[in-house]
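Example (one chain per record):
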Amino acid sequence: MSEAAWSKEEFEARLREKGAGYHIHHPFNVMLNSGQCTPEQVRAWVQNRFYYQISIPRKDAAIMSNCDDREIRREWIKRIVDHDGHEGTEGGIEAWITLGEATGLKREEITSLKGVFPGVKFAVDAYTNFARTRPWQEAICSSLTEMFAPKIHKERLSTWPDHYKWIDQTGLKYFQNRVQQANRDVEHGLAITLAHFNTRPLQERALEILQFKLDVLWTMLDAMETNLVIRPGRHV
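Predicted structure:
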């Protein structure tokens, strides 16, 4: 017989404890947000992270294609619009390109994906494939790294203007937008997760799923650190 389910309060607390493994603590992110990265390293980070940015709406579309709940789809589609944008409104992908241009990159250098390291691509594709092939409830659970995202965006907004004065500050709009969007998204995704994962085995599965997503984000930075710090000069 399995152990009794945790209360929703304890379950949520255990989910939030996973923030100790969020990539805000990765050595390369610490370098980035403390002003230790060279312009070339900052630009390479933007180029590699762009592959993740363009995969987010595809991931969310995959979740919607598997979801049979119309009300959830109606709320979830906001995430796609946030990144893809719509007529007259800049989305997150375009805002990220603006960030890249603010660092001195040309649009083609970003959108061509030629600077994306294989390890980054492998990790991001694993996440997209997870969302495409797993039950939508599990895929939604994997999005809960958003619980920890506002902190990392606020850190960039507070440190980058001083550390990277050579970056045009208009490029930081992406981070500003995501602080509000992530808080909204967390409320919805967390409510679904707390309701669906309502037995101890399911709750433990949810923790495994969240750890998987944390590993994806950490692995992305591992690849960047390897190519930019440990063994530099290995651009694709």
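Caption: The chain has one domain: 8-228.
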